[in-house]
Structure formats: C-alpha cells, structure tokens
Amino acid sequence: MSDRYAVIGNPIGHTKSPLIHGLFAEETGQDMTYGAIEGPLEPADAFADTVRTFIAAGGKGMNVTAPFKLQAFAMADERSERAALAGAVNAMKFENGRIVAENFDGVGLVRDIEINLHQPMAGKRVLVLGAGGAVRGALLPFIAARPARLVIANRNVEKARALVGQVAADATLTACGYAELESMEQFDLVVNATSASLTGQLPPVPPGVFSASGTAYELAYGKGLTPFLRLARNAGVQGIADGVGMLVEQAAEAFAWWRGVRPRTHAIIDRLTVPLD
Ligand code: NDP
What we know:
38% of the residues lie in helices and 23% in strands. The protein is of the alpha/beta class. The chain folds into 2 domains: 101 residues, Leucine Dehydrogenase, chain A, domain 1 (Rossmann fold); 139 residues, 3-Layer(aba) Sandwich (Rossmann fold).
C-alpha cells in the first residue's frame, strides 16, 4: 500500500498542498498519496482524535495549517528548536509510535528569498512587519542568515518585544512599532508578514523604509499586487515578490524530511504564480 500523507486545516478547500506534493511524488518517483482533511473545530480534543485516527490508518505524516498549528504543537512528542520558538507546527512525522513536529515556514521563506530570488541576507538590513505565527516560525532561520540588522515591527509592540526577548541577546535584532520606522534608515529587504493583505489592508509602514535597489516580499500569495507591494513599487522598488515560493519551498522541506529526497521546486512555483501586475 502507498504511504499516506495529508494536510489538515479548517477550512481546507483552498489548499494547494495535495497538488504540490502530488507533483513532488511524481517527479521523485515516490509511492505515496497525499490528501486534504477538514479538521473538526470542536470539541477541543477532536483535532487530536482526527490525527490519531489518521496515524492508526497508517498515516506517515501531515502538514498542518490554520487554525490547528498550536494544537499540533501541543500534541507532539518531540519538537524542533524552531517549532519550539514558534510555538506552532506546520509538519508532523509519525514514526515508532511518536509524533515528531517541525515548522518549515521560516526555512521555506529564507530559501525562497536567498535561492530563488538571489537575495542573500548576510550583511543586509532586514525589516519584518508583523509578529504573528509566521514571524515566530521565521525568526531563527532569519537570524541564521546573518543579516547586519533585523528589525521586527508590529502594531502591538509588546508582542514584537516579547518575541525578540525569547531569543538569545543579539545586538543586530530589535523590536519596534510602526511610528519608530519613520526615523530609521532604508532597508535592503522589507518583508510583509502581517495578515493585512488578506483583507486588502496596508500595515502603516512609511514608504521611506524601502530602498529602490532592495526587495519587498509579501507573505500572502495569489493576490496579485497587494497594497504593500503597490506601496513598494511606488517607492521605486524593482524586486517585488509574493509568498508562492515560500509555500512551495516549505512543502519541499517537509517532503525531503519525510521521504529523504528533495524535489525540484521551480516549475511548480511558476505553475502556481499569479502575476503581480
Ligand atoms: P497571525 O494571525 O499569526 O499574525 C498576524 C499579524 O499581522 C500580527 O502581527 C498582526 O499584528 C498583524 N496585522 C494584521 N492586520 C494588520 C494591519 N491591518 N496592520 C498591521 N498589522 C496587522 O498570522 P500569520 O503570522 O499566521 O500569517 C501572516 C501572513 O503570512 C498571512 O498573510 C498568511 O497568509 C501568510 N503566510 C504565508 C505562508 C506562505 O507559505 N506563503 C505561510 C504562513 C503564513 P498585531 O499583533 O498587532 O495584531
């Protein structure tokens, strides 16, 4: 019987994961199936029951999406360091009766920026907007990329400060509110990791933070030119990108973790890309 994998979320109708993992399996010749499960929102333990039923039926691994990333974290037997900092899990592996948990969102984001977009972060000034789950998952991979400066700006400043305070003291890493950005220098890379674009909103980021020779990256994907990307373009930024590459790269990380073989990603990113203009 083929090895079974699935993504679990609610709602789940929008998910691209079965398509992406199906194409990975085809390309790498892996004997596996990958489905989508709409997880139950209540009662409180129904999510864990659904995962355990999947494991009992021979499931080997799962991706986890909203709103279950925290519940997946809570039920894991082992967690990677980046999953622990994020307090959230987006991939699980079931082996020897144990649930091993990972968070590949940040690694996928860094791979997309550094490898696909050819923008290494080492020595660069990097600004991240937002301090939610995606940023918690991305913080360690961002620090590992060795930027000269890493600023986390959030509407709720305390949330950004608390997150920065959780990692070892590092002079390059600071937290602030949007007002403080007015007096800061330009950044080589500005990442919109808020969820503002999902509702067509713009985080209150001053256009002065963009550098024309830099890059603006929007985590949301499939939405064309979001207000954030439009602001960056109007500020003269040539390099703009959305999160479709991050989506495919985090999937490739999970696939390699599960199957021991790394799939190619470029053709799938091209296939899923919605033009930004
Ligand atoms: P969370 O709900 O955990 O966090 C949301 C963040 O956005 C908070 O920091 C919140 O600020 C901020 N925010 C929301 N609205 C506004 C606004 N109008 N102005 C300023 N800040 C705002 O979301 P996630 O971290 O899980 O997701 C963030 C984004 O990343 C989403 O667009 C999501 O779709 C995308 N994403 C993309 C992935 C990919 O593979 N491409 C993977 C994961 C996420 P505050 O704390 O002040 O409320």
